[in-house]
Fold each of these.
Amino acid sequence: MAITLNINGNDVSIDADPQMPLLWAIREKAGLSGTKFGCGIAQCGACTVIIDGSAVRSCNIPVASAVGRQLRTIEGVSENNDHPVQLAWQDLTVPQCGYCQSGQIMSAVALLERTPEPSDREIDQAMAGNICRCGTYPRIRAAIHRAAELAKA
Amino acid sequence: MNQMKFTRRNFLQVSATAAGAMVIGFHMPSKAMAQAEGSAGTEINAWLSIDANNIVSIATPQTEMGQGAFTSVPMMIAEELDVPWENVRHVFADANRHVNNENLYTTTSTGGSTTVSRRHPYMMQAGASARERLRQAAATRWGVPLDQVVAKQGVLSAGSNQGTYGEFAAEAAAITLEQEPAIKPYGDWWLLGTDVKRLDIPLKTNGSAVFATDVEVEGMVYAAVAACPVPEGKVVSFDFDAIKDMPGVIQAVELKQTKDTPTFTDLRSAVAVVAESWYQAKNALAAMPIVSDFGRGAAISNESQNAEALSLLAGTGVVLKDEEGNPGKGYDKGVNQDAVPGLLESATKLVVGEVYHRPFEAHATMMPPAAVADVKEDRVDVWTFTQDIGRSLNEVADQLGRDTTNVFLHQTYLGGGFGGGYNMDVHRQAAAISAAIGRPVKVIRSREEDIGGDSQRPPVWGTYKAALGDDGLPTALMTHFVGEEKMPNFARSSVANMPYIIPNRRHELSQVQSHVPIGYHRAPGANSNGFIIEQMVDELAQAGGWDPLDWRIKLTEGNEPWQRVLLAMKEKSGWTTDLGDGEGMGCAVVESHGTIAGCVATVSVSRRGQIFIDKLQYFLNSGYTINPLNAIEQAESSAIWELSHAMFGGLDLRDGRFVNTNFDSYQMLRMPDTPPVVEVQLVNSEDGWWGGLGEPAGPPTPPAIANAIFYASGTRIRTTPFTKATI
Ligand code: FES
Ligand code: FES
């Protein structure tokens, strides 16, 4: 059936089963491939998007639940790859294979919007849902602090 | 150290047309990919082309999985070519051209931390060769002697003559050198040895890097696959009628195994369900009744393997020969294996080790294996998860019975690899399914299918006996390890070739059998064996009244590469075995891929037995380092990789199948578990050998932590994961 999603500020009409997990609607129907599949059971964070300001795992919620809400994906973080989080990530060379990083960045963006100067403990809590098999955690931690500084400047 | 053979022919390939741009009828998933596959400009040799604006595009035959190949290969070539780094662009090498031109790029294999360490001679040669041809082109056009032409930072000059490389590219491409230039010796570098940010980083902060999972082809459908849950078992039948009316379902395809015992990359018996969407395919597959023949594996479990290993350890194993493998030269490894049993028998002070063990571990790359295949009558296009584009292309051709000239395998980024991209049949699956349904298809393995059917890191068991002399140092040592029959080498690395000078050593090996496919896994062998050997060393030091770090320094005397690491550990880590109650420092040092990696771990253990890792310090000697920034990133990465397995890993094999196959039950290290301090220092010998850097910081990590836990709590942990140990 026809479903309208608001993704990155644009209304997007797709034809999908309302029970389709949001992740697959974003990837297959809306054609935005930056949001990744990693586990399908809300355990790894690769599929993290921001819905109405909160970081959400898109792999195990139905697309219908995102209707009428503001949905943001990695593609909507900035026009030119220059959001403070993205700049900090580039500066501290965070990504390795990069597969988890869309999800990591979405979790970090949501954290900083709510808590502009997070402590290490707040970072640990906000980022606990995002696994990185390449082990970029120490750099992510440092980059979130850097992004907080960049956003202040 | 090891230099790969290479042929001059590879540098003399001349083509006046634009390089390897593939014209194919598929929807480019992003601009990034379009740019990556097509490089404009004049090709000087297969590795590089230069355009009119003096932009140099450099092709990388290795795959990029976060380890930096897409930066280190261009760096090695740019070093010799001598062009400003800002002018360098990375392009994917063309696998079809490689395979159909006698392995044009020598090898496309990516693993064993070898991209730089073993391949720099011919990659640097490619850059040097191009530079010399540019110089010759300028000398000819200007009518000046060759030795007056200087090539520097993309500019050719001789007296008042000056021009960019780009202006001479076409002429250079037509030149055949009489003699290939020598590559620069260490120290003459301007780019190598400096911190360079990886070129792929910006693509990975905005979601634009294209992985095999992201490729879209016109008319594509999706497939979920299921092999028999017990490895080696076979699918006997399935009931498609039961699911054919489920939403989106198109077809079921049986993937037939052609060989009785498939090798790593042969297609294994499985069944696929194809649907309009991947989640529909996955749901339908889960609902489809499938009958399997489990085979011999159904009788094998962690428990049965453990019992088998323990009984083997009670007997005698095969005696291993002393092995080469250390960069340290000219020291006496002293084996004298036949004398060892007698010496142990008559020892006045005998130390008898208990049994150590590491379990199965999966790669669990963040990107589950995936492939897209578009099989047409006259051509085949494939995008896949692979650490060897050339080999995978050949496998697809083999699967379909096609000639390799019509098979095009396009590089994409890899969402992790760690060895898992070697023993992979996902591109065979995609090709077989696309051929069967006559449409392009994307196969994505579910996480459960990935972990349950992965080529696993095999379990290892090990124990030892040693006789100590009056000075407390060992006079005789015997080890007995039990490995996995399919890859016994994994139970050998870092054992017989340990650096410690013990006058009499004997190393025995036994093997357990299993049905589980085994594969390379970030520092294979060294990761598990280092855990055992480096705790054994601490036990021996303690029994002999030695400080564990001093023991290691003493028993590697005269071995410069090891001494350099061990002395740095002692001088720069704040080393002490006496931190007070509940706190401890531990050390371990393991060589893998030609790099010696030392780790000093600082931990605290609470009264309730909770482990906190406060600090991990690494000291690495890889001989040379071409990009220190990337070396440090890789050391952090491999350290956390092994830390994750040590703290949380361990696959559970029951009745032949792995039962913890997703991240709820196969746990990974997460941000809150990450030590507050992870520091890496490079302490290179700069002495003629190159070690790899993608893996070596992993192996010393678990034993250093276990040793530290011992000093903090008095408890020795002999198996992983630590979270299951009682302290
Ligand atoms: S794919 Fe959604 S949390 Fe892993
Ligand atoms: S960068 Fe590879 S999984 Fe995080």
Note: Chain A has a mean pLDDT of 97.
Amino acid sequence: MADVTLYHWEPNANSGKPMLALMEKGVPFQSHYINMLEFDQHKPEYLAINPQGTIPAMTHGARVLTESTAIMEYVDEEFSGPELMPADAQDRWRIRWWMKFMDQWLGPSFSMIGWSTFVGPMVRQKPKEELEALIERIPLPERRRAWRKAMFGQFGEEELAESKRRVGFGIDRLEEELGKREYVGSDHYSLADINIFNSTYSLPLSHPHFASKERTPNIMRWLKTVYLRPAVQETWKMGKTDLAHRYSLIMEDI
Amino acid sequence: MATAILYHGEPNGPSLSVLAALAESGLDIECRSINLLKGERYTLPGAEQTLASDMAVEGEGPVLLKDGETMSEAVFLAQYFDDAAGSCGLQPKDAYAHWEMMMWCRQTTERLAPAVAYIGNLATSQSVVGAMDEAEFSAIAKSVFSDDLRERWQDLRDNRVDAAKLEDSKTKVAQFVERVEEKLADGREWLMGDFSIADLETFAWLRPMAALEAAAFKGKLRAAAWMERLEQRPCIKAALAHATVDDPSHAFAPGPEINRWG
Ligand SMILES: N[C@@H](CCC(=O)N[C@@H](CS)C(=O)NCC(=O)O)C(=O)O
């Protein structure tokens, strides 16, 4: 009996990581959808699970786990099913390196651009007092600042330009990496692919000038390979917005 | 292992934790001391694939050169030693304890390390980098591959101090000491129960703060006893023996950036 509950939003970025890892391992889990655009992640019920007020979080019996990349390593080690980390020590190191590069260098730039162009405008409709009250509830001070910028469109030109630079740079490095190896960091499908796929499958649509069949053939080859995995198909069905559907059209076209 | 060489700075921060992890693993890897504050990490002989050291999130840290590839990031190098040694006790075997160690280390590298690097560089390395002659500094700056890391070098040279970041860094150091104190509240000897990379990584970044941010440690008796236990541990002594200066806790070079998102 797995007895796993996952608190997640759409199958992308951080939420998508444990969703897809659980699917790949064949671990049944209860899905608890947290609507990020309704700020479910800052409601008392959820803060009781993860006081940081970020998603995802996972419970396994009495255990509560946070930090999406570390959750994936747990899922891989705790449950039987296909290995999602190769045996070679240097490959394992490389996989962890790429996941950190995504989580702590490239990912935040994706987030900033995504929040300024997509998330911000979606939540801006609400009255200002309501938005202020929503900000009040956010536990992490740095997140309070980020949400304020997103809600009121206050990202600076300089920081957005820096994020765009990083996205362009990061995509080029990923393209080189996938020219050297079949998958990210090794020749085996692994947690690094799950991690990075969840933050890059939207690229051909969101950043077509950076990622395209002509410009980044290796990334496109890899995106398509990962996309065709049954676990991805299953995971994408769990989305409640039309996000995954829109991207599946792009994938079919690659 | 004969083909691997560990290039490290003075045993402080990431170089301290990696040298200690290596000693703990018992692996026979040659160690060579380099001066990170002279940009020596960018001119390693035989380095062919350098993405991992050029773009290390942790900034100027140790590099393991293996088969032409420059391996970086202190926590992952420690995990690599543990994996390569066939589990030498640096990582818990139980999946949940292992998760907790990785979660803890992630938060150490994301919150504590940038704060310590900010405070430490200003306190100890600003005067050195600021006093370099133009030719020397621009040669180093030119060799730094990452644009944002180069900017941190330049900020240090120009003594550009962001008061809010400095304040925030001090708060984060104090919060982390508090967190260590709480973790040890049940009388455990090591952070994760058994000794692990979490102890090495946390200690390596907190050690230089004992003098620079003494107030953060005031009344934190369990944390102080834990620091002392580490200080006495043979792997830490072995790591500190690699120092080429009197007080390696003053050795800093531009480190990880302070979280620009959230
Ligand atoms: N380091 C955490 C970050 C989690 C995180 O920031 N998740 C985002 C969604 S991808 C979130 O919760 N955003 C909503 C918020 O901060 O209010 C992890 O990897 O799990």
Note: Residues A 13-15, 36, 41, 53-56, 67-69, 143 surround glutathione (CB under 6 Å).
